[in-house]
Amino acid sequence: MELKDNDYGTICDIKETILPELPEVETIRHQLEPHLRGKTIAGVNVPDPRVTAPVSPAAFGRRLKGRTISGVTRRGKYLILELNSGETLVIHLRMTGRLTYSRGAVRFSQWPHLRLVINFISGAQLLFQDQRRFGTAFVIDAGEAAAYWRRLGPEPLDRAFNARLLAGILDRRKRPIKSLLLDQQLIAGIGNIYADESLYRARIHPLRNSGSLTQEEASRLVAAIKETLRDAIRLQGSSIDTYRDARGRRGRFQETFRVHRRSGEPCACGRTIRKLKVGGRGTYFCPGCQKL
Ligand SMILES: [Zn+2]
Fold this sequence. Notes:
Blueprint: E1 10-11, H1 22-36, E2 41-45, H2 57-64, E3 69-75, E4 78-83, E5 88-92, E6 97-102, E7 114-120, E8 125-130, E9 136-140, H3 145-149, H4 163-170, H5 177-182, H6 192-202, H7 215-234, E10 274-278, E11 281-285
Helix pairs in contact: 1-7, 4-7, 6-7
Zinc ion (ZN) is lined by residues 267, 269, 271, 286, 288-289.
């Protein structure tokens, strides 16, 4: 379905083949925040109860009714709507979740795969579509958010994420560095695309034993992760398939991929970019720039 920006306020579109990672969720957060902040929730429609399970749609709606959104934040790949009650509404897009803000009510029959609609007293709606139904929405009690988010590793764009912190995470771990970077309990928000691009920029082979990285390599990797994520946010994420930003434009970071999805193409150094599997995930690297 074609969405026109002049029909709807904010259009955020994540489709399969790209998993929303930190830069895509951050782009969505940035786009939705000015529309959602200060809006009071009138109620919800839950066409697919799986999105709120194990909480029933009725119980989910009761918790949100009358709450005002005081801010839109992000933790890892989770989008967080902070409520004036101190509770937080969390949305995880998983694989194909897509969020759209509409200034007025839409006709649901025209919105395929609609799982959840948050209605605001202004008449605006936040629509959550999800083709593959892995996306979830849930409410965290007031005062429990900090404890909840401790299950995730540090935010890579925080100042506190430095070479010393990363060295502590890597210490004595024998897993390939690529797998470690994807582990949300160790570092939050990095997925397949940004792991490959960060390792390339740091000149570290994806199969390197995590615990074997030198201090200098850890330092290079921290800098590469931050630079890669910031570049991607600046370009509004990666659109391999149909991801669109708030203005209906594609993210542009995929145009700058140095190795990801480029196997068989030449690296800047002249060697051919190769693909291998690490922990079941397609992994791209340059054998010239990233020696084992
Ligand atoms: Zn190279």
